[in-house]
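Model it.
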Amino acid sequence: MFHLNNRQLHMLFIFLITAVLVIGGIFIFSNRRSVVLRGNISGLENFSEGWVATYDTLDVAKWRKYGNTDDTSGKKMVTEVINLPNSFDIKADKYVTLTHRIPDFSEDNIYMVFDSKDQIIEVSADKDILYVSDGEDISFPYHVIPIDRQYRDGNIIIRVKRTDKDKVTFDSVRIGNYTKLMSAAVKENGWLVLVGALLVILSCGISIIGISLKVEYTKKLMLKYVGVESFFAGILFIIESRLFQNFIRWEMLNYFMRTAFIILTTVAHLLVVRCHIRKPRILTVVDFGILFYCIEFISVMVLQWFGLLSFERIHFIAAVLSFAGLVIYTLLIGSASYDYKQREEKPVFLSNIILVCAAVIQIVLVIIHSEEAASAIPLAVGCIFYFVILTVYGMRKAVQVTEVAHDPDDDRMLITEQVIDKFNPNLLFASFQSLQNLIKNGSENSTKMIYYISVYVMNNLKAMSSQGEIIPFNSELEHIMAYLQLQRTRNSSLSFAIESKVKDFKIPRNTIEPLVENAVKYGIGGKNDKGNVVVRSYERQDGYAIQIIDDGIGFDVKSLKNTGGDSAKNIFSILESKCKAKTEIISKEGKGTVITILLPMIENELL
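Modeled.
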């Protein structure tokens, strides 16, 4: 089944970042800079009344009332005085011209701001062209035009050079100096810069915490991915703010940066999602999603290069695909979190639900053209909750791991104590005595006995010298087999079976064999050493499973007995810290015990 390992994922992510930098560099050096600012700016002085509109109308009634025929071209033109906002019914290949007298002002220059979507705009003053909306096939929705002092008391003319629709709509026009322009931008959504800065600072804090934690790299990977996602999301909020756009003054570059950071944030989000998925099939869907977004970004940039897609459409496509991915992968996290082995992932699911709800509210506000849509308040609040929950959750998991395995020496000490306690000298003495009798009687089984003794002693010695070593399960199985064979030489009433359907996975050395010893010593031993022990291994949809089953005396799971309880808990802790293993114990007094250890497939392959 297809899935990417950590190294491949990181190389792919680095490739995407490199592609963004290279394409951005090519774009900057191959396109001229234009003075274009995005902004549905409020708080400036109203400049919407008394505009003279001239256009070739499709409205017969309006032409009869205001119309005249151009003597040179024969066009049926309408000239009327209007207030903005306003709409004009025209033919798709015709022009609309708006004229107004520029007010007297004392500043060096002032700025005129208005909205006109889906059309190419040209602005001139006293026959000097001040501004043309960027691109031959791109129309940007917002325009900010600086007007120099030399044009005061002159005429300002706004002309629609091209539109693909039969209706042209102009928003209200506002005017003011640079201070008013920036103040209006701050008032409108300058707080997005603050939100973005907070997320960037949060990402730096997460990175510092991730570096300072003395745990294995894979254990703090989720926290690092959250930091990366927080960084890109913070930059995206800053880019979306009017303040940033006022400084950039290059709408095409702004669209490119917004699109690039939408894709980078989405891919980082999928890396976070990937940390909470255990089922291989769902993991494959996540990996394909990461590949898809990388390929999608490169593809749309190629299409833009050949003039087949505008940056406005590319930005829209990226936003739609990002939202669709957010919804799909939130559902996948929900499916995983409510699985009986991943209930602890519910906070992650909750944080994603909050993010989805915030995105839905933001989309609704955009559709109904609400003023709150431009400030992106719902999305910003949702992102803050999302990152706070994930950061707290990631830190808690990392701290829990630290408490269990904050120092490799602790694991070594635990395993060493366990090996010394479980070396079982009585078993070895009894085995040597049985071997002596077999040799005296000339039995061929003496060779097997020597083999089992050597395997048992060798594995215990290796556990002492190579504590915590990750080994194939097959090696641990040899240790288990040797122990059970030696036990049966001294206790003929013991029966055992090994049912190993899968062996090609890894575990920490000497973690399963002690559980088998507990089953024999405490489970079967409590029934006069008569009983059965079964060791199974098989593959499940969500990982590899190991079961130790005995029909011994059983015990109360809620209060593990002191005899063997501490060592069992240590083993479960080691399995959880090194393999993210989940353990389930079912025991009934007088009937026996079933211990199931589930090893997630992906984490096991990383070992």
